[in-house]
Structure formats: C-alpha cells, structure tokens
Write a structure and sequence with these properties.
By secondary structure, the protein is of the alpha/beta class. The chain folds into 3 domains: 2-125, Winged helix-like DNA-binding domain superfamily/Winged helix DNA-binding domain (Arc Repressor Mutant, subunit A), CATH 1.10.10.10; 131-200 and 305-335, D-Maltodextrin-Binding Protein, domain 2 (3-Layer(aba) Sandwich); 202-302, D-Maltodextrin-Binding Protein, domain 2. The chain has 11 helices and 14 strands. Strand 3, helix 6 and strand 4 (160-166) form a beta-alpha-beta unit. Helix 2 crosses helix 3, helix 2 (40-55) packs across helix 4 (69-83) and helix 2 crosses helix 5. The chain is elongated. The two termini are 47 Å apart.
Amino acid sequence: MVGTSLALLCAPYGICRPCNCGVCDPPSHGAVYQQRHIELERLDDLEAFLAVIEKGSQAAASRHLRRPLQSLNRSLMALERALGVELVKRTTRRSEPTEAGRVFYERIKPAVAEIIEARAEAANLRGEISGSLNVGAPILFASTYVAPIVSRFLKLYPNVDVELRASDEQVDLVAEGLDIAVRIGESEDESLIARRLHALRVVTVGAPSYFAEHGRPQHPRDLEQHASILRAGTDVIDKWPFRIDGRLQSVKVHGRFRSNSAASIRAAASEGTGLARLPLWQISDLVAQGGLAIVLPEFETEGMPIQLVWPPTRAPLERVRRFVDFLASSLKTDLL
C-alpha cells in the first residue's frame, strides 16, 4: 500500500527509477529514490513542503515542525531541485503554492500521512512512542493540573515532547493544530470525539467585604438585588442555573464587570466587586482562607462536566491514545 502510494506520487514528476522489489505495483513505477523507496530525509522534505503550504509561510511551518528555519528552507529547495520545478512562491510574509505545487500537494498529502502513521505504528509494535503532542486547556486548569500531569508523562516517555497551550476560549482544534484539549463545560463543537470524566462542583461566592456592604442572598431570586461578575466570551453569560423546588431554572443576573478570564473573575470577586459563579477548584484556596464564602449551596446544580476532546481521525496515533488515557486517569485521581 505504501509502496503503491509513493509510486503514484513520484512517477509523474520523474524522481522514480524502476525497481523489482515486489512491493511496488506495477514494478515499472517503483518508488526507488537514491537506491531505496524513500529516505527518511526525503520524507522530512515532503513534510516541510506540506507544512509551508498549510501554515502559509516558512516561519509558521518552522514553528509547527520545530525545525530551524534554515533547515526547513533547505528541505524545500532540495525537493524543488529533485522535481525540477518551483513548488512555492516566496515573499517576505507569505508562501503560496505554484500551480505545480498545488497539484503536488494534493497528490502527496494522503500518502505522506499514511507513511507517518505506518512509521508510528511500527514504533508502537516495539513498545515505543515518539513525536510531538499539542495540548490545549483553560488557563488556570492548565497551570494547576495539566502542566504537572504533562511533566509526569514526559518522564515516562522520553521520546515525546508536548506543547501546552492555555486559553479560556474554545478554540478550533484543527485550525490551531491541537491533538487534544481539556474542556470544562459542554463542548461547542459536536464533531469532536469526547471522553467525559466527571462533573466539577460549581459554586456561587462572594467576598466578606461585599457581604458586609450588601448582605448575603438567601435565595436565587435575591440575585436581582446583587451585583454579579459576568463571564464574557462570544456572548455574555448573564443567566446562572440553579435547582429550585427540584427543577433546573435559570436566574438572570447583572453586573458592571465582565471578563473572559476565570483568573480575572476570581480576582474581582475576592476584591468585593460582586458575586461570582466559579468551579470550586478555582477558588478552593480562597474559600479555605476565608477570602471568599459560598452562598446558596442548597440550590447548586449537578456541576460542570469536564471532558477531553480531540478531532476525529481515521487512526489516532499511539502517543495520542496513551496521553488521553494517562491524562484521564491522572485527572480523576487529582480532582477527586
């Protein structure tokens, strides 16, 4: 399968020589290059070309592949020399495919992906995993839980490297190049594969200074008379869920401060700006120290789901599977 794919890739561009290896079909279209089907360095050249086209510039491709810019440029030039045709038009800011480059990109992309997966699966048969993982998580959760778990994972697998990107926004995993992300709350993208762990307790809190001035709410309906700190994102969340008389109900809240950052909401609440609704793990230290106090506990809902999500793929790489299992197991232990 791999031999056939490479033959189809290379033959139209004149970089193949006939072989009789028994893998290529037909033999006259064998993918022998420099006495072999494909050298690993030639695969690196193809990966460099794909990254430049997909990322839009050599600088972005260099960061994505974690290769020096000069090394990536040499790969691109070597590939163009081998093919005898310009593949990419380069400017100071952008790199765009030529017509030949566009056709070549469409032909080689599925085959290169197949080769990379095959190489990874071969390594797995030896009990090894290697390569890069890009992981996303909310800012506070990333520093508090995910970063320590990643450190433990790296000790177990010395040939893997991980990039942890922290954001409180639900970014597009494919566009951002993320292999897996931790989501707190329901995922907005229903196409993602999700592994739900458990629910995190979410509480309504306020600072002693706020209660001294405004009093404590005794019922969710009392929130109409209080200032609340609102979560802002694509839309401002101005309704908080509570369980009232056994039914889930939403109560409208209002306030003069809003933020898309959980850390900012935590800080504002501790300063007495207003009441906040936050997962307990984000503020457990302030609650223990008396900097914040929980109100309306008898009206709390079941909690906020925490889940791991990743893009659907034909065959997830072994390093992704192992990291998902390790992260899920570690979070259950650390959060319970």
